[in-house]
Amino acid sequence: MSNFDIFRGRFKGDVLTPSDLGYVQALTHDAAVVAFVKDPRDIVLAIGIFGASSEAAIEASSGLVIDLSRYLNNVKVDPKKRMAYAQGGATWRAVDHAAIQHGLAAVDGVVNHTGVGGLILGGGYGWQSGAHGLAADSLVQVKIVTADGSILTANEHENPDLFWAVRGGGSNFGVVTEFLFKLYPQRRTVFAGRVIFSPDACERISAFLDAWWPTATPEEGMVVSMVTMQNAQAAVVCYVFYNGSADDGREAYRGLFNIGPLSDWTGEIPYEQLNSMMNPIAVPEAHHSCKKVPFGDKPSQQFNHNIRKAFVDISSSTDYYVALLQVYIPRSKINSVPADATPCRRDLPGESIAHVQWKDDTPEKSQGARAVCQTLVTVLSHGGRSVSESTSLVDSATYDQSQTFFGDNYARLQTMKKKYDQDSVFSHLRDIPDKPGPGTPGQSNPQNQD
């Protein structure tokens, strides 16, 4: 009996390989095995087999996906303590619906079908960040399975170094099976929705942003996007948020509405619907490639006629859904936390995101998507480099990309990586290399310009 057969026999959850019914539907990453975990000990078993056995590694040569979403997806709210317990496979939709029943809300993202874990472990910001900081700032405790198979609790008092690392250091240190995080009082309805403009309104929108952004309050937030519509025509879609009534929200964005939108889909909505309004931009079943560029001094530097013209030219292909997102979430609360309190950088004024989405994947489409992203980044930064890249098809991060992404906290993260995952068992998305590689500062490699 092979090690893989032993693994499959002992595993309490579901194990799918390419020969199994449902494998294609379950696959979200390139992998030979998809394992739906029922118990943290399943993860210990998977790490022991796939992390240490060369035979199993050969049988699963494209890797193992440990998926918590099928079974470990529960959310429990403690209204007295204003805390939420979310299992590692839970989504923000489940958190939003559970918390608002008690007049509470979490700091989550801007789409609700994404997992709790990915956002928090990456630092994470969303509509509530103007008032309460990053998602990682609200984290109180995790339960995590590390690379040696240990099941640990990490908080400010128990394994505090690991607790520091997981609040923005990504999925580099293990598989988190439970998150405990703070909740905040929240009114039941908010003012939010989409406002759609012709691309010709770009200059007037940027003038509004230049005036509004420096004085935006913690109750406000906008994501301004240039997108390709279903007819391959470009449009400007403004997603607005105001944590208050419709009357107050319309007053806060009066200058935007006075421009004259093509359509106005805003209104006072139940809070739990807020984080679904941008879901179409990130369809889970599609392939995605994203790159980020930090803001300039004024919104008009990243949202103007020249960028609009370039976007229209770049996004004309019907093979891709292309979006250029400008995220305007007030950062005073985020930046009030000391820079070394968590791994993620806090010194950026905001970011633009080049996002390409496509279906029916081929190597040519993947390469084309990355080329479109890089072209948009070049337009945005006038030849500068992006802060980070994330795509389901990208290789592990190079040393200089990770160093740029984490800034001055990178050396400490490297120490934590050596302590908890010296062999880089967890390195699929943003690894933490301990040595410079090709293309790092001081070396010449023009091919590595992501």
UniProtKB/TrEMBL annotation:
Official protein name in the record: FAD-binding PCMH-type domain-containing protein
> Which Pfam families does the UniProt record give?
BBE (PF08031), FAD_binding_4 (PF01565)
| Lineage: superkingdom | Eukaryota
Q: Does the keyword Lipid metabolism apply?
A: no
Q: Which organism is it from?
A: Antrodiella citrinella
Can you give the residue ranges of the FAD-binding PCMH-type domain?
A: 8-186
* Stretches for region Disordered: 424-450
Keywords, ordered alphabetically: FAD, Flavoprotein, Oxidoreductase
- Where does the record place Polar residues bias? 441-450
Q: Tell me its cofactors.
A: FAD
Single GO MF annotation: FAD binding
Q: Which InterPro entries match?
A: BBE, FAD-bd_PCMH, FAD-bd_PCMH-like_sf, FAD-bd_PCMH_sub2, FAD-linked_Oxidoreductase, Oxid_FAD_bind_N
